[in-house]
Amino acid sequence: MLAAFTGAGLSAAAGLNAYVPFLVVALVARFTDVLVLPPEFAWISSWPAIVVASVLLLSEVVLDKVAVVDHVNDAVGTFVRPATGGLIFAATSAASTYEAQSEFMARNPWVGVLLGIVTAGIVHAGKTVTRPVVNTTTAGLGTPVVSAMEDGLAVGLSLLAVFVPVLVAVGLLLLVLLGVLLRRRARAHRARRTGRNLRGASAAVDTDGRPAS
Predict the structure, then answer these.
(1) Hey, how many other C-beta atoms are within 10 angstroms of the C-beta on 99?
(2) Which residue range(s) make up the domain with 23?
(3) What sections of the protein cross the membrane (predicted)?
(4) 211 found inside a domain
(5) Does residue 37 sit within a domain?
(6) What is the SS3 assignment for the chain?
(7) Which of 49, 88, 194, 210 could form a disulfide with 10 if both were Cys (CB 3.0 to 4.6 A apart)?
């Protein structure tokens, strides 16, 4: 059960930022005994993997905070984030299997991959839909703020997933609340824009009811 919370938290974090949960798992596995990766996933904690992931994380952090550029970054993330979610869910599930000998996960390793892909994909889709709203409603000024919030949430979820998996539900709730907040902001923005359009159309009609030339 705890392995499921761990995988869910890490794959959800991957939906926000693909490289944060990867690095958390890699560093924890390399420097502690909290997470012991089985041989087939041991490469995740190798120095080459850590260095490459660190460089990619730096690029992600910078690009995701620039309006318009973040759309291109999200387009690339459509493939990277779900794939990372699947990998990390499978790796941590395999680590639990390796230690506790879970028969189900040992015989069905594809389950972890699928759950990770779906979880990360859902979170990524929410991020992709709401980000244009943020860019539009704030003229790009809110983009780095929301991006920093997402990065912080990705870090928090990843750490909770590894060290306190029973609290992952709290992190996921915060993620849902953030999505709801952004969705409400989008609806309010559309309502204001519709109101302005209606007022503009009314102003374009002259006193005898005919459209102004």
Answers:
(1) 12
(2) 2-199
(3) 42-63, 109-126, 153-182
(4) no
(5) yes
(6) CHHHHHHHHHHHHHHHCCHHHHHHHHHHHHHCCCCCCCHHHHHHHCHHHHHHHHHHHHHHHHHCCCCCHHHHHHHHHHHHHHHHHHHHHHHHHHHHHHHHCCHHHHHCHHHHHHHHHHHHHHHHHHHHHHHHHHHHHCCCCCHHHHHHHHHHHHHHHHHHHHHCHHHHHHHHHHHHHHHHHHHHHHHHHHHHHHHHHHHHHHHCECCCCCECC
(7) 88
pLDDT at residue 168 in the model:
80
> Is residue 152 domain-resident?
yes
Tell me the one-letter amino acid at 112: G
Could you tell me if 94 and 41 are in contact, meaning their C-beta atoms sit under 8 angstroms apart? yes
- How many C-beta atoms lie closer than 10 Å to residue 96's C-beta? 22
First to last CA, the chain: 69
Q: Judge whether 210 lies within some domain.
A: no
Q: Exposed (0-12), middle (13-18) or buried (19+): which is 13, by Cβ within 10 Å? A: buried
